[in-house]
Amino acid sequence: MFDTLSDKLDSVFKKLRGHGKLTEQHIKETMREIRLVLLEADVNFKVVKSFVSRVGERAAGQEVLKSLTPAQQVIKVVREELAELMGEGEDNSLDLAARPPVPLMLCGLQGAGKTTTCGKLALKMRRDKRNPLLVPADVYRPAAIEQLKTLGRQLNIEVFDSHAGQDPVDICTRAREYAELNGFDTLILDTAGRLHIDEELMGELKRIVANVAPQEILFVADAMTGQDAVTVAKSFDEQLPLTGVVLTKLDGDARGGAALSIRAVTGKPIKLVGMGEKLDALEQFHPDRMAQRILG
Ligand code: GDP
What we know:
Layout: H1 3-17, H2 24-40, H3 45-59, H4 62-65, H5 70-85, E1 102-107, H6 114-127, E2 132-137, H7 142-155, H8 168-182, E3 186-191, H9 199-212, E4 216-222, H10 227-239, E5 244-248, H11 257-266, E6 270-274, E7 282-284, H12 287-294
Parallel strand pairs: 1-3, 1-4, 2-3, 4-5, 5-6
Antiparallel strand pairs: 6-7
């Protein structure tokens, strides 16, 4: 993950370490190089601009220049600012504090990893001693409903009975009633995705939100699609009250652009990350650990 970004930052800092004392010129040059590395990693250009200006300001401060290990101090500043960029210090845990059944809704484009993430989330809920009900509300692709039913069978977690052609809002409402009557405390709603955003899809998602009032509305983003994922996240966020992001396929993301930009662009925290196709490959996101990992 992010190997290229890590390697490139490493070579920037190697050069810096070669100097005993740092001058403002060194800092300037380093900031220019960090800027290029981040742009090459497909980080949003506005995010890069403000990041580099924040790091540059701190790095040019006396605290760094007068330090006995200035290069080390610059790296520390970069690490702290990277963590900050990804939401360090914010509460990014799932909010389940509501009267059960607590509805959690996943949305995003087709192929982003919604259905897989629903399965992963259901497993996580059960491991956390909750009793989840999976709800297939993608009625346009019968394969999507089947996929969720298969996951449910694999996990031995119940999947609400729904069929292609039914009204997704009706499915979610009935699933909620069913959960209430049958002792499920968490609903995991797998909504429809399209290849592109369209008004009809947004209208449907808004109706689900209005009728079921999900406690979490999570945008599922494919990290491998870089800035495209960020642009789509922003559009979803403008139309739906998103509460967070699940970044999938981080295991295959060589560049890191989506991971580094999505929080800054949408203002919504990355809550969970998908680290593989297996159902236990869902992790809570830790900005500080991620920053640490990037800097090796
Ligand atoms: P949906 O159309 O949004 O429901 O997407 P799916 O859940 O069907 O996932 C699309 C593809 O991405 C499938 O082949 C999944 O196995 C794969 N996938 C989902 N999450 C991850 C992940 O975190 N890592 C990897 N490597 N593959 C993933």
